[in-house]
Specification:
CATH architecture of the largest domain: 3-Layer(aba) Sandwich
Bound molecules: glutamine
CATH topology of the largest domain: Rossmann fold
Strand content: 15-25%
Distance between the termini: 45 Å
Structural class: alpha/beta
Low-confidence stretches: 336-356
Radius of gyration: 25 Å
Mean pLDDT: 90
Number of helices: 14
Number of domains: 3
Shape: globular
CATH superfamily of the largest domain: HUPs
CATH class of the largest domain: Alpha Beta
Largest sheet: 9 strands, mixed
Length: 514
């Protein structure tokens, strides 16, 4: 049976991941594809509906992102959002141009409740707008179904062709009834059944993994983080002792983390994972010597990781599959899933060096967002303490040390981070802050300790709140807590004489500090 799915066609807008999230919150599975995707391929996927996202271009300009006009003739419902709406109108004979008044922010929109899109929506509803262009006149056969004082066509439809266009952004939470509108689209217009649920995901994954793997051997990269833990337990349930889990202690883990991972997943823990711990700390430090550029560090760590697996695989004997804990945002941030620029390469995403001799890669979580991974983890019976563990990047502290990585710097950042985490927990803030960690800058500066001049490193504390890891805002930590951390770090961690607090949100920053 084919899985019911909505396709999201990406025109490069900022909120595209959110569109996918909102659709999945309606229990409908969806995937994001670039606008360059061939119509033939789109047809073959047999989507129940298509959503065209926002984007930075003006659709009437030369070279603007566009789509095959035949997309609107497929008989599949299409919903255009902002740029997607403008493009639909422009393509089908409406008039789109620079708006006399551009709208940005929350705006009250009057909607026509007789439209299927707005059935249960309030007549006047606050929506999030972000546009310079507007639909001056809708395409022939279309009727306006929403307006604002400055925007005569805030939404329009052609019911018989199942085409819908919205100028505002229903995916953004500032659009108070946005989720209702998207839910109306997928249920009332596309006729979805809503079968995307986590228990279904776990069950279906176990079945399809069994089918794909058969009686072959599987090697899993276990880091102890949420993603790889969920992937490993999922695999263990699917293929039992055909699975071997290798935990590479690359010396770039948080303080004591290697031992903690071994406690949970090792032979004395609750899982049957054929757990192997490889201690290759020195080897990684050696490879990273003198390397400062963050992308290069990520690449080296990723490659070395794969090498270690190759070696382990050879010891285990013929291994056919390698499991990786790639999740959906990794795929998109690496520029594989849509139109968003390559932000940074994730070492756990496909695309391995040629010389790797595993037959195939299995990425059982590749379609999931972080909170979906957690739900799947709970579904699999993994303890909450592990499921809600803070995310930790694959390249580990290698990318939380700005500049060259050395064993001594690893010690500094580990100790500072452990103190920071301890104090946050003591203050009762560990549940309310999304992600927090210490990073070592490559700045040294002068200080004075015990009347003696020091010339040591500065550590940066970072703390952000995020729902979906695509955007994040800086957490407000009480000053007294920060002061306590500063005091302890400088007193207890040799080599650090300055503590900074990073105020940067994402965007323009990233969550990590590298
Ligand atoms: N670039 C288009 C405009 O300015 C669409 C913007 C968007 O999709 N948010 O109107």
């Amino acid at each position: 049976m084919k899985r019911e799915k909505i396709l999201i066609i990406d025109f490069g807008g900022q909120y595209n991941q959110l569109v996918a999230r909102r659709v999945r919150e309606c229990n409908v599975y969806c995937e994001i594809y670039s606008y360059k995707t061939d119509l033939k391929k789109i047809r073959e996927m047999e989507p129940k509906g298509i959503i065209l996202t926002g984007g930075p271009n003006s659709c009437y300009e030369e070279g603007a992102a566009s789509c095959d006009p035949a997309l609107f003739e497929m008989g599949v419902p299409v919903l255009g959002l902002c740029y997607g709406a403008q493009l639909m109108m422009h393509t089908l004979g409406g008039h789109v141009c620079k708006a006399p008044v551009r709208e940005y922010g929350k705006i009250e929109v009057a909607v026509d409740r007789s439209s299927k899109l707005f059935g249960n929506v309030s007549e006047k509803t606050v929506c999030w707008m972000s546009h310079n262009d507007y639909i001056e006149t809708a395409a022939p056969g279309f009727q306006a179904i929403a307006h604002t004082p400055d925007c005569p066509v805030a939404a329009t439809q052609c019911e018989e062709r199942q085409l819908y266009a919205i100028q505002f952004h229903p995916e953004v939470l500032h659009t108070v009834e946005g989720t209702k509108m998207l839910s109306n689209f997928v249920y009332e217009i596309c006729g979805c059944a809503g079968d995307w649920k986590m228990d279904a995901f776990v069950e279906n994954s176990i079945r399809s993994i069994r089918e794909r793997v058969g009686s072959k051997k599987v090697l899993c990269a276990l880091s102890g983080g949420v993603d790889s833990s969920v992937a490993a337990v999922l695999m263990a349930k699917a293929v039992g002792d055909q699975l071997t889990c290798v935990f590479v202690d690359h010396g770039l883990l948080r303080k004591n983390e290697g031992d903690e991972v071994e406690e949970v997943f090792g032979p004395d823990g609750p899982y049957n994972l054929n757990f192997i711990r490889v201690n290759v700390q020195e080897r990684f430090y050696e490879r990273l010597r003198g390397v400062e550029e963050p992308e290069q560090k990520r690449k080296i760590i990723g490659e070395e990781f794969i090498r270690v697996f190759e070696e382990e695989a050879k010891k285990v004997g013929a291994v056919d599959f390698l499991v990786q804990g790639t999740i959906y945002p990794d795929v998109v941030e690496s520029g594989l899933g849509g139109e968003s620029a390559v932000i940074k390469s994730h070492h756990n995403v496909g695309g391995l060096p040629d010389c790797v001799d595993f037959q195939e890669i299995l990425e059982p979580l590749r379609d999931l967002f972080k909170d979906e991974v957690r739900k799947a983890g709970l579904e699999l019976g993994i303890p909450e303490r592990l499921v809600y563990r803070q995310p930790f990047p694959g390249p580990g502290l290698g990318i939380r040390i700005v500049g060259e990585v050395t064993a001594d710097k690893v010690r500094m950042v580990q100790d500072a981070d452990a103190i920071y985490r301890e104090e946050i927990a003591k203050a009762g803030l560990d549940k309310s802050i999304g992600q927090y960690f210490a990073a070592l800058t490559n700045m040294r500066s002068v200080g004075v300790m015990g009347d003696e001049r020091t010339y040591d490193y500065a550590v940066a504390l970072r703390a952000v709140n995020t729902i979906d890891f695509m955007t994040a805002e800086t957490a407000e930590i009480p000053f007294a807590v920060l002061a306590k951390v500063m005091n302890r770090v400088i007193n207890e961690v040799k080599g650090i004489n300055r503590v900074l607090y990073d105020l940067t949100s994402k965007p323009p920053g990233t969550i990590e500090f590298e």
